[in-house]
Specification:
The structure is a single chain. By secondary structure, the protein is mostly helical. It has one domain. The protein is built from 4 helices and 4 strands, in the order E-H-E-H-H-H-E-E. Helix 1 crosses helix 3. The chain is globular.
Length: about 100
Amino acid sequence: MFGLQSIRVQWNERTPEEGKRLLAEQLRQLKPGLWLYVDHPAADTPELRAVDTVVGDRWARERSSVLATWADPAIRAMIEDLGIELVSPRRLFDYSTCRPK
């Protein structure tokens, strides 16, 4: 592999503001290299609420918080100020072979 490192915000029961603060802290601490962040941003819709048959609205709350955080102008500005380049997995992986490029 090519030295892939990861960061993650645990969204369980966090408010959007808490998630934003935690993500900002992690972004400020990144060292040069290749980092992976995987999550499931989504709008809070009736369809998403219908998928969560156990709690009812947990996924909608968490996933809409992820979407709001990554779309937040302050987070986007921080990413730019820190010189972080966001890239699609398509730039890193050859989907036909499931191997790094």
